[in-house]
């Protein structure tokens, strides 16, 4: 069995095209401190964003297909989102991204495209901002079809 120290510098990367396994767990808030301590011992902090707040604008179709896939716990799920980060006080910093995420069971495939707008700009837009309507189309050049009308629905 490896010690936690020996695992700190190991970075598991999926093979190209294989996707990643994604499992989610819930626990009572009273156990969050214990979980955080355990993760601190076993996992390396992200070198670019060691402590940050993740901000996300989720997109969906007019028929709310993505939401229905989530509610129904469909085996196949897809989502499109715009994401940026802020410091722990909520000040946005760095780049922003448009992402497409696909799940097949517990396997996750993700495409992320850096946007030409910094996080500080995107964080000030409301959901009706016309620039948000154009962002999913940037995924097309990476093989992600966006024929459905994806619109921003929730921050």
Give the secondary structure arrangement, pairings included.
Blueprint: H1 4-7, E1 20-21, H2 32-42, E2 53-60, H3 65-71, E3 76-86, E4 92-104, E5 107-118, H4 119-122, H5 130-134, E6 151-154
Determine the N-to-C terminus distance. 42 Å
Overall shape: it is: globular
What structural class results from the helix and strand content?
alpha+beta
Helix content: 10-25%
Can you tell me the residue ranges where pLDDT is under 50 for at least 5 consecutive residues? 1-16
Widest sheet: strand ordering:
1-5-4-3-2-6
Q: On the 0-100 scale, what is the average pLDDT?
A: 83
Can you count the beta strands?
6
Q: Oligomer, anyone?
A: single chain
Q: Count up the helices.
A: 5
Overall radius of gyration: 17 Å
Strand content: 25-35%
**Mind describing the biggest β-sheet?**
6 strands, antiparallel
Write the H/E string, N to C. HEHEHEEEHHE
Task: Provide a descriptive summary of the structure in words.
It is a single chain. By secondary structure, the chain is an alpha+beta fold. The chain has 5 helices and 6 strands; from the N terminus they run αβαβαβββααβ. The chain has helices spanning 4-7, 32-42, 65-71, 119-122, 130-134, and strands spanning 20-21, 53-60, 76-86, 92-104, 107-118, 151-154. It has a 6-stranded antiparallel β-sheet with strand order 1-5-4-3-2-6. It is globular. Mean pLDDT is 83; it is low at 1-16.
